[in-house]
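QA checklist item 7 of 12: single-chain prediction sanity check.
[x] sequence parsed
[x] length recorded as 76
[x] structure emitted
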Amino acid sequence: MTQEELANRVGVSRQTINAIERSKHQPSLELTFKIADVFRMRIEEIFCYFPNDDLDIDDKSRPPVTIEISVINSDQ
């Protein structure tokens, strides 16, 4: 599935999907569920959660987590 196809299915731009894949954008919870639904997988099977332990909780300049998309099932 191309970025464009996934974007169309979940209602965002291809650039948004690309930014999520490059860890430049963190999807909303709603978008996260939509992406998981497209692949008929659980969120934790697609997205990895890496907390930034050294992050000052009041520091709004950096996101609190890094999320990566990783779909292993090549049948989709």
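[x] summary fact logged: The mean pLDDT is 79.
[ ] second reviewer sign-off
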